[in-house]
Design goal:
The complex is a heterodimer.
Chain A: E1 5-7, E2 10-13, E3 19-24, E4 31-37, E5 43-50, E6 53-56, E7 65-68, E8 75-79, E9 88-95, E10 103-104, E11 108-112
Parallel strand pairs in A: 2-11
Antiparallel strand pairs in A: 1-3, 3-8, 4-5, 4-9, 5-6, 7-8, 9-10, 9-11
Chain B: E1 4-7, E2 10-14, E3 19-25, E4 29-37, E5 43-49, E6 52-56, E7 59-64, E8 69-74, E9 83-91, E10 99-101, E11 105-110
Parallel strand pairs in B: 2-11
Antiparallel strand pairs in B: 1-3, 3-8, 4-5, 4-9, 6-7, 7-8, 9-10, 9-11
The chains are: A mainly beta, B mainly beta.
Chain lengths: ~110, ~110
């Protein structure tokens, strides 16, 4: 049973480009969570999704960031018009229906040049 | 003041030592998580607890809800335990997965 898969592991974007980060949850998990870890800072919650629904997006920046978890395929965290301050490690986690603890992916390290 | 505080920030131990990492929080919670972040960056969930004590191998986690405090203990520490240990709380009013994280405790175990 594969764990939570995130890709790419590393992503380099120039300022103004779009970044798309993918997360495939563990088999049987229908809840996905995204977290951001800025350099030298702790993890911060961004968004909680179930299939085709955003449950809690209270941690998402108001502009440029969006997330989806379609009926088929991975969850996508999309950052439009990236800026240097978006450089961070982005982690995805998943859990089964109505239960935790969380299973984390290895993260995507985004560097904006 | 952060809502989740960990101590110490950094900890160096000799192999075999008993280690304690502390976590204090200032909000009402429904659950507390202990996570381990490896030097390569990957995160592993160690424990989720809402009361009492849990044990897994050489790791023990305790929580005192009244005192808003949790501890993570490692018995017979080993160099492979070297990692950052992160405490995170799920608030009573928050959604599942909406966690508030501590800044982490960086543990280095020397052979």
């Amino acid at each position: 049973n594969a764990g939570v898969m995130q890709n790419p592991r590393h992503l380099v974007r120039r300022r103004g480009q779009e970044a798309r980060l993918r997360c495939s949850p563990m088999k049987g998990h229908s809840h996905v969570y995204w977290y951001r870890q800025l350099p030298e800072e702790g993890l911060k919650f961004m968004v909680y999704l179930q299939k085709e629904n955003i449950i809690d997006e209270s941690g998402m920046p108001k502009e440029r960031f969006s997330a989806e978890f379609p009926k088929e395929g991975p969850s996508i965290l999309r950052i439009q018009q990236v800026v240097r301050g978006d450089s961070a490690a982005y982690f995805c986690a998943s859990s089964p229906l109505g239960a935790t603890p969380l299973h984390f992916g290895n993260g995507t390290r985004l560097t904006v040049t | 003041k952060n809502e989740v505080e960990q101590s110490p920030q950094n900890l160096t131990a000799q192999e075999g030592e008993f280690i304690t990492i502390n976590c204090s929080y200032s909000v009402g919670i429904s659950a507390l998580h202990w996570l381990q972040q490896h030097p390569g960056g990957g995160i592993v969930s160690l424990f989720m607890l809402s009361s009492g004590k849990k044990k897994h191998g050489r790791l023990i986690a305790t929580i005192n809800i009244q005192e808003k405090h949790s501890s993570l203990h490692i018995t017979a520490s080993h160099p492979r335990d070297s990692a950052v240990y992160i405490c995170a709380v799920m608030t009573g009013g928050g959604s599942q997965g909406n966690l508030i994280f501590g800044k982490g405790t960086k543990l280095s175990v020397k052979p």
